[in-house]
């Protein structure tokens, strides 16, 4: 758990998007909608335990993929877990604020990408 992408034939994970665990975060809102409480709990625990440290590491990321998969996934998880009177107040996993604070940290770091006139972006 915690890889950016899954290679189905080899059944291995690869970190081709900066190592932010994009697949875990991206799949979380789907698991919440489907009522897969065990998956939600495991993914939420991974996010709470690991994602902040990964975000805080400097390195190159794909801005588009990171924005839609990781930032979008965190904001969806926040809403679906009942944050700010979102949909589900009986969620599994960490408190909704964990998703929001992690999203805010990531967004603050991604903001620096918009100040460069280059096609390659780095988390600062």
From TrEMBL:
It holds the Pfam family Glyco_hydro_47. Keywords: Calcium, Disulfide bond, Glycosidase, Hydrolase, Metal-binding. One of its GO terms (cellular component) is membrane. Its EC number is 3.2.1.-. Pathway: Protein modification; protein glycosylation. Its cofactor is Ca(2+). One of its GO terms (biological process) is carbohydrate metabolic process. Belongs to the glycosyl hydrolase 47 family. This is alpha-1,2-Mannosidase. It comes from Liquidambar formosana (Formosan gum).
